[in-house]
Each structure stands twice: as structure tokens, then as C-alpha cells.
Amino acid sequence: MSTQKQAPLVCDTTLRDGSHPMRHQFTAEQVEAIARALDAAGVEMIEVAHGDGLGGSSLQYGQSAHDELDLIERAAASVTQARIAVLLIPGIGTRVALKAAHERGATAVRIATHCTEADVSEQHFAAAKDLGMEAIGFLMMSHMLEPGALAEQAAKMTGYGADAIYIVDSAGALVPQGVRDRVEALTAVTGDVGFHAHNNLGLAIGNTVAAIEAGAARVDGCLRGLGAGAGNAATELLAATLDRMGFDSPLDTFALSDAAEHVVLPLMPFQPFPDRESMAIGYAGVYSTFLLHAKRHGERLGIDPRDILVELGRRKAVAGQEDWIVDVAEDLARAAAAPA
Amino acid sequence: MPAPVKVAILGTGNIGADLLMKLRAVDEVEVALFAGIDPASEGLARAAKLGVPTSHRGLDDILADEDIRIVFDATSAYAHREAAPRLEAAGKIAVDLTPAAVGPLVVPAVNLEEHASAPNVNLITCGGQATIPIVAAINDVAPLRYAEMVSTIASLSAGPGTRKNIDEFTFTTARAIERVGGAQEGKAIMILNPAEPAILMRNTLYAVPASGTLDEAAVRVAVDARVAEVAAYVPGYRCKSVLIDEQDTRWGRVPVAVVLLEVEGAGDFLPAYAGNLDIMTAAACRIGRRIAEELSAGVPA
Predict the structure, then answer these.
(1) CATH fold group of domain A276-337
(2) Backbone dihedral region of A101: left (phi > 0), alpha (psi from -120 to 50 degrees) or beta?
(3) Going along A131-265, which residue ranges are E strands?
């Protein structure tokens, strides 16, 4: 027993990243059922929020069917041991929203910025610390920045008081070597490095294993991989993998696979998968949440969504720029309509 | 033509420097003082080289000059809250480019006439200047239940003040969408994009009519007319697309007017990609001209 290595902390984000494929329509009953199942299976941190974080309910990203603060409260009331985390993207969410989420039961916050823009998060880290919350930095689209430069951004967040820093592969564009290099670079500035995968190139579990082997102390998953783009690392598969890697993990692998099959699968609108569009997201290096928006505008204008996604990659769109999808789609439609 | 009205600029950073270039081209005003608090500032040295009177004693020297009638404040919200009552006591009109919002919120293409004789006017935010004219234009055609704006600006054009106070952008802009634009509910989002070469400032507006119906032709006419009005004082302001998009919202499936706007800076002092800063200084310049006309009209020739 005592010879076993301590497992990395697994944060399940079905109720946040899963909000994207759910088109932000989670009901209170679904949130309660998922939170209860995760808690019973030993998951120690559960993230609940609109897919784009607190305040994300918008026409830009999709309006929530139910107020995320109510969902946070219902999740908090459904767990016995798990901590409830929220996502906050400065520019979308504010410290006012954070305070409200804390009052409703969130005790941790993941403060997310584009990987080069850590310095927009200073006031939010300060607010989280004032509230006594665990504050975790979340560097999105980390594939766009080299390891050394990424570590400099992480250092800014530790300077603002971050308890841990995630390398967030928002585009699912990293391959294992890129993950290892980034985890190693960040280990120099924080003792608590996290990794958040997307499965757009089919590497979510593989990249997460690479992160753990390189020293990551936290990793993310979603039941059944329910997340943006081709989804995330499936929490039940992560649990199985941690067992087979020889970790002393608090997770109940079969309870998680039951929850994935019996609680989450029945409510999923589709199974996220590296299909031609999601694969293009990973290959072009664009934000995974663009998937459904690119499909909708592609359909509206008779354009291949893959062309839209590849063009967004060429224009170096970052997280949250769903309006550029409209712009690119309109540009491509105009170009297609122009006489040759 | 009456003698130009004497004005001062407080704050010698990028905004102050760009505003100086713009105001020097305006016949109705004369920049009588360019004031900061750092004697070593590059902005002061550049202004002095142009022959503009400068001071590093900031507000005190502005207050000491009775001839200065209008003061453009390009410092910080904190500094402006301190300066505002002193300027008003001295009978000087403040054009506030900070988020302090001491005076009424003004967008030249919407409500400048209403506030042309106010002692202190505030310019809201760059995103507010870019989108509120269009909120108001669509609201005139179809009263709006909700309006949401998304500003994307080049990382290089976001200074430390913006970065440390990004929440204030969100709060101030959302409130102004309601108060100045006329929408029942406003929302604002800001995104920084670090792409190289730097992107031009982009703004997207989503507008939801209270009636649940939109006359597309009428919306287009109203938007085009208002874009032309803004472009008269912000030459790089343009509309890329207007579309009516059926969306699933919390009010059901409704038509949403989506307007894509772009702002290219004039390149007076700041680079062209910094349309977010250009639209602030251009709006300040437009407001300054109008206030100068008001002051000149009240003075016997």
C-alpha cells in the first residue's frame, strides 16, 4: 500500500466543458445526478459553470437554459466530499460573478486567460484569495506558446497568488512531446502543474498520461468525454489508467464507468469524437468550442465547416472568438459567390 | 471665426499623445498645455519638440491657467475622481477619457447635443464608443430587449490600465448599452488577441428586439446611416456585415441582428491596429469641438 504513488488530483468538468455539446441546456436534475455520481465515485473536484465560465451565458456563446448560479448551488448540495469549482475567464466573467458563485457553494476557481495574456487575471486572483477560494490558473490554447514563454506567463499567475497552474490544450492540438516539454517548463515556477486535454487528435488520454509522467499533479476529465470539440479525456478511462499506472487513486473506476454509461450517455445529444470537423480543430489549432458554431454557420451559408475552422486557425483566433466564425463564414460565402 | 478655445490635455501616455495630434488639427481649439506628472516622460519631450507648452506639475498648472476652458483627462479613473471637483470649481469643462464616469456618458453619434453644456462628460469605453451608436440606431427601428457587444482588440493595444481593470470595461460598457443605447438589458465581453501582425479592433453586436420581429431592410438602412455618422469623426470605422440570424435564446427562437464592425486607427500617433484607442481620442476630439463651439457662441465677439 504505502509503496503506491499518490495519484494526481482529477477534476471532472462534465458540468462545465460538457456544457458546450449540451448547448448550455443542462437541467438542475441532470446536474444533481451527475454531481452525486461523481462524488460517490470519489472525484474530489467537480467544475460547474457555463462552458465559457461564469457570465458565459450570451448570444456569442449560447445562453444557458438554467442560471448557472442555481446549478452551482444544486451541485454543491448534492456532494458529500467533492469540492465545487467554477471557471472564470476575465473579459467574460467578473469578480462580482465570482463572489456570487462562492456564496452558492463554489470553493475553487479556475481563472482562465489566453496563454499570452496572464496579466488580465490579477484582479480576479486577488478577489478569489479575498474570498478564501482555491485559485487555479488556466492558460488556454497552450499549444500556441513555446514552453519557456508559457512558464513566464505561469509565473505571473503565481505572482498573483495562484495555487496551481494548468496547461490547457483548448484546441486538442498538442502531441505528447509538447505536453511533456510544457509540464517540465512550468514545474520550474510552480509545484502544482495541471493539464487539461481535448481529444481532437485522439490523444486526450495519451497526452494526459504524458503530463502525469512529466510531473503534473492535476488532470481533467469528463464522463464519456463529454466536452467541447471531440471532447476531453474520459474520466472513467483516466481512473482505469491511473489504476494500471500503479497510483493510489481515490477514484472508483467501475462506479465512474457506470455513471458514464447510465447517467451521462442517456442525456448526451451526440458522442463527441474526432470526426472530420473536430479533427480539423486539433489540426488547425482552434478553440474546441468552435465546433457547433462552425457547423451551424456552415449549414446556414452552404459552406464546409472544415474550411471555416481551417481559416480561423490561419487568422489565429483565440478562445471566445465565436463571432469570428460568423465573419469567416460570411467572407467564404462572399468569395464562393464571386465570379471566378 | 472666433478665436480658438484654449484646452489642456492631462496625461502624457499613448492616449494623451494621440489626442494631442488630433487636437492640433482642429481649428476651434488650441492646446495651451500638455501636462503630466513625470518630468522624464517621453510624451512631454515629444510635445515640447512640437512647440506645445508642457508641464510636469499636472493638474496644478492647468488650474493655474485661467484661459484654459476645456481639460481632456487621459490619466486614470482614480486620478480623474480626484481631479473632477477641482476642475469644476475652477470652471473648466472636463472631457474624461478614463472609466471614472463622474459626468454623463457621451457617445457623439448618439447624445452629444444633450450634454454639450455639461461640466463633465465621460467617454465610457472604446467598445462602448464602437457599438453603442449601432445599439441606438437599431433601437430606434425596433426597441431592444437586449443588446450584447464583443470587442476583440490586439494585445499590443491593451495597456496595463486596461489589463488590470478588465472588469470595469465589462460593467461600464454594459451599463452604457442600456443608458445611452436604450436597450433594456446590456452585456459586454472583451477579448485580447495576440496575433502578429496585430489585428484591427473588431466589435460584434447582437441585438434582440422586444417585439420578436425585425425588419431587415430597415435595420440595414439605420445601421448604414449611423456608421456614416460615426465615420465622420472616426474615419477608420466601418461595418463589415449585417445579418439577421435566427437564434435559440432565453426568449425562444428569435431573430437577432448581428452587426460586425471594424475600427482601423488613423495612425496619428498610435499604430493603425489600435482602433480601440483611436476611437476614444477621435470621439474626445469631436466632443471637444462641440464644446468649443458652445463656449464660443456664449462669448461676445
Answers:
(1) Helicase, Ruva Protein; domain 3 (1.10.8)
(2) alpha
(3) 134-140, 164-168, 193-196, 218-221, 247-248
Q: Is A5-267 a CATH 3.30.40.10 domain? A: no
CA distance B292 to A72: 53
Share of chain A above pLDDT 70, in %: 99
Closest C-alpha to A72, from A88, A85, A57, A55: A85
Task: Label the pairing between strands B237-249 and B252-263.
Answer: antiparallel
Task: Identify whether residues B149 and B190 lie together within a single domain.
Answer: yes
Of A209, A157, A144, the closest CA to residue A180 belongs to A209
Q: Quote the CA–CA distance of A130 and B294 in Å, as a whole number.
A: 48
The answer on pLDDT for B37 being more than 50 is: yes
Give the C-alpha separation, B274 to B202, whole Å.
10
Contact flag A326-B258 (C-beta cutoff 8 Å): yes
ipTM of the complex as predicted: 0.96
The reply to whether residue A58 touches residue B187, judged by beta carbons under 8 angstroms, is yes
Q: Kindly list the domain boundaries of chain A, sorted by start residue.
A: 5-267, 276-337
Within 239-278 of B, beta carbons closer than 8 Å to A belong to 240-241, 243, 245, 247-250, 256, 258, 260
